[in-house]
## 1
Amino acid sequence: MAAESQMEQLIVENVMKELAKRGLTGNVSPNQEETTKKAARPQPKSEPYRESGDDPLTIPEITGIWVPNPENIEAIKVMKQATPARIGLYRAGARPKTGAMLKFMADHAQAMDAVFLDVSEEFLQRMNLFLVDTMAQDKEEFLKRPELGRKLSPEGERIIKEKCEKNPQVQIIVVDGLSSSSIEANVPDVLPALTQGLTAAGIRVGTPFFIRNGRVGVQDHVGKVLNAEVVVSLIGERPGLVTADSMSAYIIYSPNEKTVEADRTVFSNIHRGGTPPAEAGAHLVDVLKRILKAKASGMKLNQ
Amino acid sequence: MVLQVTKTNNANYQTVISVGIDIGTTTTQIVVSRITIMNTAPGSSVPRMEITDKEVLYRSQIYFTPLKDHHIIDADAVAQIVLREYRVAGLTPEQVDTGAVIVTGETAKKENAKKIAESMAGLAGDFVVATAGVNLESVLAGKGSGAAAHSRDKHCITLNIDVGGGTSNIAVFKNGQVIETACINIGGHLIEVERQGDMITYIAEPARAILRECGLSWQVGDRPGLDEFISAARLMAKSIIESITSGDISPITGELLMTPPLKLDYRVDSIMFSGGVADMIYGDSRPVSVSQISEYGDIGPLLGWAVRDELAAAGIVPEKPGETIRATVIGAGAHSVDISGSTITVDEAALPIRNVTVVSPFVKGVPEAGGEITAAVHLAAQRIISDGSAQYVAFAMDGPAEISFAAVQELAQGIAQGAADFISKDKPLIVVVEKDCAKILGQCLKIILGEKGEIVCIDQVVVGEGDYIDIGKPIMGGRVVPVVVKTLVFENTATRKD
């Protein structure tokens, strides 16, 4: 350790002397040692990264075709239309081009944000959803201890007993899961479409609410507490690099102690680039009607 | 030979039997195909039904089209052909789910062509539709020949020209999609010759123009020499080549074009020939005598040879098609039907519906304001009501700019109000949207309309003003409907140049 820092100091001193010789640091002051130490210290990272001047870094578009002189540009166009994968972006040696790399990193950052940020209070107010917590105290615990996200906190259980209509045919819950941003992107269209369709079909819909730091299994707990015939969870999917905004609907019929994962019906890939959220809401109405009629969900429904 | 018509039917995989009947200038043919529709989405996604396979199960004999005279098709004889071929194939009309009857080429000009197409459709099966139009014929031939698939597989632009007995139908495909069509009134059966002989037995009207241009004054009963036949065939071939290549169009080609000429403002990668004459284009026979070229009772073989010669002169090497003489009938049988998107709203009792007139109320996409939507739909509905000709009307649109619940609700409100005068118990409200939003749009419409009328709201079908569509009963557990678009949209894309 000591040897390393000595070496580091030596290098820094040499560089500074070299720069001084070329007249790039102004006068070589008597307290030269102080200056070099200061320069070697890492700069604080509180400022967002800016490429130059005051312009924030713009994320490059990767919708174009970057292959120089392609043999058949039409073929690349068709292929690009068929997939959101990062194709037709050429390369720099064996590596991606800078633009493609920056976009990749930006998408990755967005995926990270989707997991770590919370659904905003303003959003919940707008959607008229109240918030309850699971047994997970915070995001970190939620991520490390999956089982805590499958159970409401005692306080949460008390709140829903107090605020929710009991014995509904369909209980809708909104759960952040692994993508808070997918909730904000899709729920405003799925929820009204779903509620409208169910109500029009004469189905008794319970009081919807939001669960923070929740996983799929929390729907079993909610179902048991409210004695719901069916519970639908609108839950954020693990974000990917194509979209961080994909949401799933998990549906369970009459959850109890014997409920296993195969009992759940799931529809994934609800987002603007997949099944449009409003359309998905209307489709879920049909699925729920079938589940209520068959009195079963998941694999039991398909038998 | 008895056809084993096996069908599978469950919510994720279904086969349908489709027939094609082509009543052409020279020949009449029937094919039976099996179309496979599958849910291609993974189990955890909203279903996505797609046509995954088209297999031709049965090809009929090739019959000469029975005509009473040069103006009337022999309906009884055509019906006999259909019944006979069904019997041979071991097929009953009840087993047939869909398909199309098309009357093509010169035969389409006969006085009873429309009636024949409709009566044959009824005879062939419940949802077999009657189709017509030179542009549709061009598209079906190009799909049947394999040109559409060629352009999709090779990511290129492929031009198909189906040289038949009466017309040459041109369709250009880019990545599997048709981009342009045209039709020229030239075919191998426009001049009929005594079989294995050399006496002229009939000259169709369009052929007179060719003969006039060649300075030939043939009459029925004449026995011209081979060199005269060759000069007429050469001019026909030249006109055909002119119609599919860019450059000046001679007055005679202009006169014979039945549609505006191709724009050809793009590079064509491959040219394919189908139709009865195509076999001669890809063959290597040479004309030695009139009696040798007249084996089919017309100048078809000679025209094929002449086209091959002209192609060689122009330095064009044509691509080989998958089908030649059967291209159009296979197009009608296997490629006329399509399916809607997989999340739709339909009242099953209202289907099937045939010959639905398509109107596009919105010129520049769906307006944002509800009032404007209502006004535009109302105007379109009024236009149809005052016209009085259309029994069923479909309102076609691309969909809201952004498929949000609020926008769809607004659109449903606008359509319901605008079309209020038009909806009645026996006239369902038919809406065709391009974007994937028919389920939610249908849900909103149903709630607004209540008991006032039935709804057929389907998506992922592209149609435009002036098209006609037929919508079949739902399949795949009620998830999708078969749709036949009888498009006329290419008719008015350019002004005629003659």
## 2
Amino acid sequence: MSLFLIAALPFLGAVFPALLIRAGRNACSSAAGAVTLLALVGVLLHAPEVFRGETVTARAPWLPQLGMNANFFMDGLGFFFATMILGIGLLIIIYARHYLSREDPMGNFYTYLLLFQGAMVGIVLSDNILLLVVFWELTSLSSFLLIGYWRHLPAGRQGARMALAVTGGGGLALIGGMLLLGHAAGSYDLTTILERKDQIQASPLYVPALILILLGCFTKSAQFPFHFWLPHAMAAPTPVSAYLHSATMVKAGLFLMARLWPVLSGTDIWFYIVASIGMITMVLGAVIALFKDDLKALLAFSTVSHLGLITLLLGLGTEEAAMAAVFHIMNHATFKAALFMTAGIVDHEAHTRDIKRLGGLRVLMPVTFVLATVASLSMAGIPPLNGFLSKELMLDAAAHTIWNGSEWLFPVLATVGALFSAAYSFRYVVHTFLGPVRDDYPHKPHDPGIGMWLSPAILVLLVVAIGLFPEALAGEIVRTVTDAVIGGHGHYHELKIWHGVNTALIMSGIATVGGLILLALHRPLDVAWLAAPRPEAKVIFDACIGALIRAARAVTDTLHDGALSRYAAIFTLFTVGLGVYAFSTGEIGEATRPMNRIEVLPLIVWFCLIGATACVVAFHRYRVIALVIMAIIGLVVTLGFNYFSAPDLALTQLSVEVVTIILLLLALNFMPKRTPIESSPGRRLRDAVLSIGAGVGVGLLLYAILTRDFAFPSISEYHLANSYKGGGGHNVVNVILVDFRGFDTFGEIIVLGIAAVVIFALTEAILRTSVRAKLLNRKPDWPVAGDSHPLMMVVVTRLMMPVALMVAAYIFFRGHNEPGGGFIAGLIAAIAIVMQYMASGFSWAAARQHFPYHGIIGSGVLVAAVTGMGAWLNDKPFLTSDYGYIHIPGLEKFEWATAALFDVGVFLAVVGAVLLALESLSRYAWRPNTDSPYPMDINPARDDPRGGRED
Amino acid sequence: MEILVATAVGLLTSAGIYLILRQRTFPVILGISLISYAVNIFLFASGRLVVGLPPILRDEAVAYTDPLPQALALTAIVISFGMTALIVMIALSAYLSDNDDRIDMDDVSDLQDNDA
């Protein structure tokens, strides 16, 4: 099976549980199990190649420019982890089916679980470190969903947030580390990186990369001082804990350390950081675990301790230690998953997991007792179980380690860790299952059905079998995996139980006996422990997060206080500052362009503009006056465009001016006509200084541009040269719009359409609220004209309508060769129709308007799109235009370009958008019972001009 | 002529920014319209100012003005109408709903209430 498929299967399969939950809980869990089984079979099919020492690969370039490729590979290590993730995943899926109650949304559970599983498989199979980081982040996110699965429990939500904050923060560090590593190695492909040990370790980036990567690994694998999130994640349902904390999530950090072992390890800094942190974590976790009364908390800290053990082994940097690490990863996954599941069974049956309320379950739950005992003894390191074997290897490795010149420090600490480990393992069995049967369990416990104990039973079988026949069952795979970890062929001892009486055995014996003694002394020790002051990680974490949130809120509240005009002022100041900086530090060339001579007429028009602009500011409190003066500015701008050889712009500006002023007048109808004086003189002075500064800057910049030639050759020459040859039009501006840059124009008509539809939607929403009643009861603040639809105006506008539409058509058709085109024609047509609204009233016009304006906008966009797609028929890219000559008898021959069809789309979109905006606005003014049944309000042929009587 | 255009654009920008810094919606809308004029002219003028050479291909013409900024400014003018219409509607709706056309929110609690 291709690695692509293996990595994708859990993600694809995640859909099924969510859908199949409607078909029942069995269908849901079976689907999840089937997907996992399929992926597992896919992995196992590659076993022969992997055991031959070959690497299975699947590669696809994704963003090769960034070194980011969807490359997957599977060697011994990847195979081992993928098998473990999918195999234990399968057991968890079976177990969870029986563990979850009817109230729990099972579809969600399996979907999250499969997403998480997919992310984990992705991590262990990635051959590209950036891809690996992507999957790494996905595990943080999906584990967040899993840990917070019981979202009604505050502890669950807090635990999930804490896990996300810690592992997500570590993930950020990891991204940085991976980027540095890839930079140092010159490649982001793992297989390449793994061959460049010397280059990487010689690089100055080695230490920062190492520290950042280790931060990622330590947070994920709950190493001291980041160990605190793991126990809080125990608020998750037990199947989640069993999965995340035995075989997957927390092993991701170990996996990455093992994966990068060949290039990162072997240096002093690696040894001192990794081995020391591992040792601290191992001892600390074991000590705390002994004093936890919650079964899952005990197991959580024991997990922390065992993760520390494996980290320690990886940190030692020798081949034997690496092999011990691999072996312990396997053994820990088997006994710890089984232990979590037995803890879940106890919780499920007795309704408590508080050790102090348990005891005597041996009689009531014999099956669970056997499973838990065997797994616990393996955790304690009692022969002949698999935990014993890997613990011996660890003790042996520690016994030969010299730490900073001290020969005894590591052996002693390792023995202490093993001792506490034995003690809490014994306690798990003794205090839960042994002792007298009690009569005060919250719920009468008994063994559950086979569905719940089958999964731990399979694992316990492995625990015993590997313990008894290590070489036959695990020897081959452990050596293959270790070869992959160290990136070569190592020389290892055989795995066997009896090595003779050696240092490790003596240390092991001390640990076991010491563990029993500690257990016997547990009660007084527990009292002393509880009385002793110790830092509570959650309190510290909450305080840190609280301080962060307060700081963030303080900054946000100060900057973001809701005063929009303040933001605008800050923005202006900042922009002007940037401009000043650019002006003062940059260089400016000589003024090379000859000036145009100042003529009299333009000078007069310029004075008009200056005067009008000054008046708008001076009279802006008198809104109607300001609006009228605005129209003057628009007119001057139009004249300016016309003067400076831009007839198309002049036409556009003129028609836009008309609709804009109508729009603003309509809006002003409902708004106050005056603006009160509110800002203080000081504030007005500040605004004046700011705005004058900005204006001077813009003016200077424009003057500097206008007096200089282009710094680089312009692309305009190309447009001028090809407008006729390629686009078939003489009006270059129009050809650019509908042809050269047709895609821009296409986007712009869509934007315009969206704006109009938003206006429509806003009107709909507003008119459904109490605003409607307010509008109907509104008293006009100005006297209303006596005749709302004057006869003269009605007659004239109706006569004008066909003429105006004719002009629009003329402007449209000549647009390709003369000034004009779809934009301008659309505006003119819209004005022709708006005139009818204004003269004859909304009701009259609306009654005669048969096509909704949204439809017109949509059809415009559609016409433009279809025209563009027409090019595909000729195997040309979207919006390639074509043109030819058409002969119609009786007319001269003329050219017709497909771009004209595109221009029809522009025309329709503009008409629709302008009218939809104005129509929406005029609906505010509509009142019921003002509709006249007659086409004209005044008709001398009728007796009563107001239509009070029928004809 | 260049100095006239540059001063006009500078003045339009100044007036526009001053009005945008006012506290009521209507002056702000006027200010945005003024800024739109300024920006459109700026964009257009970046093709340099030429008198009497429209970009319409003619056999007898010797030179043309730069057509590209014109095409860009043309769509910008139409789009700025769409934008003006939208903010006018937003301002009007806000005024009609709350009987208030101030643009500054009084205090942060308004914001937080909306967030919640």
## 3
Amino acid sequence: MENAKARVKGELCKSCGICINNCPKQAISKSGQFNNGGYDMVVVDEDKCIGCGICYTVCPDYVFEIN
Amino acid sequence: MAKNIKAPEALKPHRFCPGCGHGVIARVIMEVIESRGLTNNFILNRGVGCCCNLRSIEVDGLQCSHGRSCASTRAMKLLAPDTCFVTYQGDGDAYVIGLQETLNAAYAKSNITLITVNNSNFGMTGGQMAWTTLPGQITTTSPYGRPVDGPLPIQIPEMIANSFDPAFVARASVQSPAEINKLKKYVEKAIDAQMAGKGFTMIEVLAPCPTNWGLTPEKAIEHVATDMQKYYPLGVFADRT
């Protein structure tokens, strides 16, 4: 359980960047890869992620899952 | 500290704009419904507006006529008093077109929960001026800004709390993780009060509308946290739960 990390479901991402602004460890960034909707998907740096769940709380598109 | 978190199963990909506040509010409602074990005994009625996009949620619900969601929900609650009812409306729907139904539901102490999403314009039709529009705010029907010497933005939660003795009335926001957690506590209180039969419960949620405000999602959230809260203070206005 201690190694819980944020997992990204990139297809749902709309590239709004709210998670990037709220991440306390600056672990989230845009990947430069585009999903089927045409949005620049976010990606999580697992070395920096502490699994706090703030990205899950603020994301309007249910992109994140913590496990 | 860390634990597994997963969005409720009923939530499916939706069609709201990037950075829109609706998605978070829908998730909070479904989390509370799931935690109370009400998933199979829950009806989510929707008003007309951007909230129509919530048809993506896989729960029972009715797409009501414009502004009449409170009236429809009251009728349904009379027929199924043990079912949990939430009516989910925008500010244009609940405060302008459906003001009569909203106030009558509160006046009659109907045992339903109303959640309104206030983004200070008519979002779905392209961002026209509503009664919730801030003075000076530019919309498609107020290109020089809403007149500052005209009527002030309408504050329905305060009106209902001061006049109709509701069970629970609060205003929340989706501007930060802390405020989203507060919103969840309010929704829990409202649903619990409804299931205990205590009367009308209402939560207004301030939400960003980056597309119609012409702002980036980041700036739109800043606008909610600063300018909007001058006219729409957050907090609990009535609580007899």
## 4
Amino acid sequence: MIKVQNLTKSFGPKIAVNNISFSVERGEVLGFLGPNGAGKSTSMRMITGFIPPNSGTITVGGFDITQDPIEAKKLMGYLPENAPAYTDMTVAGFLGFTAELRGMRGAEKIRAVNRAADLCFLNTVLHQSVDTLSKGYRHRTCFAQSLIHDPDVLILDEPTDGLDPNQKHEVRTLIRKMGEKKAIVFSTHILEEVEAACSRAIIIDRGQIVANGTPAELKNRSDIAGAVLVKLTGAPLAAVQQKLSGIAKARKSVVLNQTDTVIAIRVYPKPDTRNGDLASSIADAVREENWKIQELHTEEGRLDEVFRSITLPDTTQQERS
Amino acid sequence: MNSAVANIKTIAKRELSGYFASPVAYVFIVIFLLLVGFFTFMVGGFFERGEASLTLPFFVWHPWLYLFLVPAAGMRLWSEERRSGTIELLLTMPITPWQAIVGKFLASWIFLALALALTVPVVITTNYLGNPDNGVIFTGYIGSLMLAGSYLAVSCMTSAITRNQVISFILSVVICLFLILAGWPPVTRMLEIFSESPRLVEAVAAFSVMTHFEGLQRGVLDTRDIVFFLAIIGFSLFTTGVIIRGHRAG
């Protein structure tokens, strides 16, 4: 549904988006990750046709956004960053206005407004003026606007920003549910959101794509992915370390915690070890010595660790430039 | 084409209801009518004149009243959209930018026309007291509306330049003041100092809205005057489009 090729955008000397390419098909929810100022919003603004790219092409449902903007925009719903809305209108008035711009009139318009309001839990504030709404409601009003015409493509710039934990959960569930039938791109810098809602994630840093894969794939890039955490009782540390280093599949082991009775050790696998193999070898080795296992599990890898390792923190960025 | 008209109508409707959703519209109309009344009856000497005509006591003040009131009505048109970020919403809808520009302009123009229409009691009074030439009054109203539209288009343009409404207001007052004074002798004399060519001076003087408005006030419905005002509106709105495109291109 969305095809982005070699997209580049610079503002003066600053390159905001540098030659990025990706595509999103129907049934996919693409998470757009990246530190602040990485080029997430700029990319989304280009996809939705708000700002023109310097070079590269974007097609939405086969329509080029620069050649055929109207047709492409008809297919898209867009929630801009900070969720702007006309503050002098009521929620119903605002949603009705966007429905009219989407070509709906009369009963069809009323149905669309009610449906979008239902989806975003706005029924109680439907006749309230937008500027009297709390941030969460205002955000959802703008979100409802993007759903008003039940679009095939949804571009959501930080859809859960400013929501309370319950609302965040609702919105994620909604995104995941809609993602079954639509192509959705949403940006966030909350990593748990990616795991909760995305079928695929792109990490973007300083205008470039630095990672692209399913959340599970990304997590596997984590240093601790596949490592085995083992907690033993009634074992002397030196003997344990010697035994563990004797395991063929283990690369190294690190003692995390040691008390009089319990030792916690993380064992890292050698490359190309199948998930679970290391854990069973460790279990076998420990059984031979008759030590007691208190805990044994293979770590999944953590997204935040991956994120930190492949995107540079602001300070290093400043040092570089 | 049908969808273009529908989109313009939708945008104009929203914009117009925006005026009335806030006190702006009511404050504007009340101030406008008070000032019109004051200038017509107290300064213009409507009664003392003893003639059934609106040209001198009424229409003659309009360029000066509009000078401050129209930029006040138009200054928020685009600067507010940019400040609140709704411009991003508006321009990612399946509409063309010019539909948005025309829609917003028309809404404000209709609003100004409404304010102007509320001065009709003055016409009724004149007709009650004497026998004015209602044709002249009619062309006067046409001219006044055109003048308001021209100022408004200029305000539309300046409001697209900045997200600060005060700057937008001041810029548009200055440009409108220039449009008033372009043909005024002190200005033309100043231009003569800088330029040898009388052509240039004439060209600048031709930009004065005053000469074009005067004809309409006197009841002369000259196509050239109407074309002049429409050209200012067209040019300003076109420039608005260019400015908005420039902002988006970064």
